[in-house]
Amino acid sequence: MEKNVKLVSGIFIMALMLAVLVAGCGGPSATPAATPKADLTVFAAASLSGAFNETKAAYEASHPNVNIIYNFDGTQSLRTQVEQGAYADVFASASASHMNALKGEGYMNNSTVANFANNKLAVIVPKDNPAKIGSLHDLANPGVKIVMGTKDVPVGSYTLQILDKMANNSSYGPDYRSKVMANVISQETTVNYVVAKVALGEADAGFVYVSDVPAEYRDKVSVVAIPDSLNVVAVYPIGVLKESKHPEEAQKFIDFVRSDEGKAILAKYGFTPV
Amino acid sequence: MRRTKDGKGIQALAILFFLLVVAFIVLPLASLFIKMEWGGLQGYLSAPLVVDALRLSFLTSAVSTLIVVITGTPVAYVNARFEYPAKDAIDTMIDLPVVIPPAVAGLALLMAFGRRGVLGQHLNALGIDLAFTTMAVIMAQVFVSSPFFIRQARTSFEDVDRAYEHAARTLGASPLKTFMYVTVPIAMNGLVSGAILSWARALGEFGATIMFAGNFEGRTQTMPLAIYTAMQGDIDASILLSIILVAISFIVIVAVKMLTRRGLIIAQD
């Protein structure tokens, strides 16, 4: 017993030391920068993570005094966090409705809010296409496993809007919508989880943004386009929060996102810059 | 403890820490009750999200606890009574799900039983799909909660005086009869409190479930998943579900405390 205690505590202490060691190595170098950097906290919709990480690299290269800290999550989740008092300088939303809600509740500096990108939806299927989906009609086949977003996350509400349009379209009809909904196996809280489950091959199809199929996923998933007549235009507004401690820096970042350089990055990831 | 001159100071410090710890645990839980919109209670108790989550949570946690008790009891008994090669290693493996993060458990289950999983791909060929079904919820719960029961059951079996078992065997009872009529009744308190702990862990399971079973109302959206989902749309619903879970947890702890205090039932002669 005594021996056991010694052994276990020994292992525990070694594990702790290892953790401290790893943390020490992995952390940023201990030499402080000459000028203190301004930390800019950006809350951004999960679908922006690819494009915005590239934006960050470009922005920090040309603005050495700024350090951008991202919080990527489902837009509705970010909105809840802001309402519950989380601090952010910039909010980039994947839907007008959540941005408008925050504007109405007085969290945003309303004059700074502007649309910076448009997006639309597409259906993705795993590369080997286990459910043999060749067209949107095949999504209604029995046994197809579909993943979408919850009704609160923008990608989910856009998906429901598209299915409503299809229900009113003679070539699909209301029957199509109910069959597709019956095939849904999971409703994810961010679009990234939808992409992951399809890319893993655990689902047969997922409703995602066109911008969610970046280069690294091209070898894992194929895209089934949704025609514009049935599609929605997802509008992305961005703005500075009222409580921001660096409103000028925040505005500069937004200006960069909307500059030619920023637009080129957004376009590269499948967005339509505004 | 010897009272020194600065004993008073130490005492005051101890009391301060004591109050701090209690306040840190009580305040957040009390805040749920304070923030709850009690006026809308009637509407929420019939909201599909709440009703479905409650129904699914109780169904899955009951089934998974049953599975844990039925499969875990022999394992606990064997580990309490017999020595076999690599027993320590197997014991450690059985305890591992207590320590690994639930998200890791979920990913591991997906890699094993998912459609492309190590075993799942062969099951899929036979037409059996486990991931993203109610069965997956139960599997996730069994995976994370079984160690709680097995540990407690093993300790209870070890505490049973072998003399009673020997007496029963000498009087001609079969090993199975001895186990059912002597060992289990004596260990009953420990077995029940282990089962309750395991059930509570299953009821609160979140990370493994959302990864392996997904999030679908009525099919895989248990109470913790409903709380997480509602948090993003309807905070009042998630507060109500949280309050229900807090109340259940409280009852569980009281029940386990009462059971473990009652001491062992000694067979009447």
TrEMBL record, chain A:
Highest taxon, organism lineage: Archaea
Signal peptide boundaries: none
GO molecular function: metal ion binding; molybdate ion binding
Pfam families: SBP_bac_11
GO biological process, one term: molybdate ion transport
Keywords assigned by UniProt, alphabetized: Metal-binding, Signal
Protein name from the UniProt record: Molybdenum ABC transporter, periplasmic molybdate-binding protein
Organism per entry: Methanocella conradii (strain DSM 24694 / JCM 17849 / CGMCC 1.5162 / HZ254)
Automatic annotation (TrEMBL), chain B:
Keyword check for Membrane: yes
ABC transmembrane type-1 domain sequence ranges: 54-256
Record's keyword terms, sorted: Membrane, Molybdenum, Sulfate transport, Transmembrane, Transmembrane helix, Transport
GO molecular function: ABC-type sulfate transporter activity; molybdate ion transmembrane transporter activity
Membrane-spanning residues: 12-34, 54-80, 92-113, 125-144, 179-200, 237-256
Family: Belongs to the binding-protein-dependent transport system permease family.
Entry protein name: NifC-like ABC-type porter/molybdate ABC transporter, permease protein
Source species taxonomy: Archaea, Methanobacteriati, Methanobacteriota, Stenosarchaea group, Methanomicrobia
